[in-house]
Amino acid sequence: MDPMFLKEVEAHEGTGHYAGMIHRCRQMGVGFPRLWHLFAYKPEATKALAEFTQAVMRGPSPLPTGMRELIAAFTSRGNQCLF
């Protein structure tokens, strides 16, 4: 993976759930969403964003979860963002 623009955020070890997921992905040699770096860097500041995302993507909805994932992937592709 190419380095992030925010090198200090990416290099920060962090603690908590997202820091652990980053560590495990690196150990396994698999990629992961760069947004996780922000969640690990400032967990107290990003808690609301993580909860919002889970509610939107996994909470009750007339759209099935798979359709919501497809919309997110399509939007990311349109923004030239790896999903």
Could you name the key traits of this structure?
83 residues; mainly alpha; single chain; 5 helices; globular
Q: Overview of this structure, please?
A:
By secondary structure, the chain is an all-alpha fold. It has one domain (7-78). 65% of the residues lie in helices and 0% in strands. It is built from five helices and no strands. It has helices at 7-11, 17-28, 35-41, 43-58, 65-78. Keywords: Oxidoreductase, Peroxidase. It comes from Hyalangium rubrum. GO terms for molecular function: peroxidase activity.
Low-confidence stretches: none
Query: What structural category arises from helix and sheet content?
Result: mainly alpha
Residues in β-strands, percent: under 5%
Describe the biggest sheet?
none
Number of helices: 5
- State the domain count: 1
Helix share of residues? 55-70%
Specify the overall morphology.
Answer: globular
Termini Cα gap: 13 Å
Per DSSP E runs of 2 or more residues, the count of β-strands stands at: 0
Secondary-structure element order, as H and E? Answer: HHHHH
Overall pLDDT metric: 87
Radius of gyration: 14 Å
Write the layout of secondary structure elements.
Blueprint: H1 7-11, H2 17-28, H3 35-41, H4 43-58, H5 65-78
Helix pairs in contact: 2-3, 3-4
Entry summary:
Helix content is 65%, strand content 0%.
